[in-house]
Amino acid sequence: MKRLLSPLALLILLVYFSPLFSQEIKWTEIELRNNPHWFDLMQKENPNYFDIKRAYDLYFEKHEKAKGSGYKIFERWAWKNKGDFDENGFLNPDKIFSAYNRYKKEIKERGPFTNAGNWIELGPTVFPVNVSGQETGTGRVNAIAFHPTDEDIFWIGAPSGGLWETNDGGITYFSNTDQLPTLGVSSIVVDPTNPSIMYIGTGDRDAGDAPGLGVFKSTDGGVTWTQSNTGMGNRTVGKMIMYPGVNSTLLAATSDGIYKTTNSGVRGL
What we know:
- The termini are close together.
- The chain has six helices and twelve strands.
- The protein has 269 residues and is an alpha+beta fold.
- 32% of the residues are buried.
- The protein is globular, with a radius of gyration of 20 Å.
């Protein structure tokens, strides 16, 4: 994959991730007080808690933490990752993938095992009322994609709950991503000519509830997944599109710019 600098790519980047152009700028204290640059800092590949917290505190010294101000984005992110920052305030997604690979190695060395158990759900079945005022459970959905020929099959991506599939028009759902090192899915692409080939963009693009580890690819309809982010790295992928008629070409809008692959994400260009 390679980064694009074409006018079209820059336009898309402005639409989806315009704050990112200012990431390398050293803002003055006045600028931090007047603009929500704390959010820009959160989008960096390796964000620093101390830098973000300082920018956050300065901004909200002047602005009210009202509904729609975005203050909950930082509060949730800081709470979720507490204890995972190093002494310098950094949180690196590579650490998560390293732990995931160690876990797979340990499981393989232990030999076969099963997750089978004789459990049934007893309730409660009444979910708390969510912000929309409906008793349908809580949580967010970041993405949705449809099977090209079967209207009963589609997929949804959760910000920290993985990818879910239904094959009965949404009556029931199941997931095959519980063992992935990140459970944030913000984008889904299904190959329209071969739905066995799928891509998910990882990470939570809205609130940072899950780290971004680039793109994952499946060639068996979502049963198994492998990381496919050579040249991109561990970015949060908020949007992906497949070039019409050229299914090997995809564009990905990430937390650090626009990336392109012309070989189905197999390897970097």
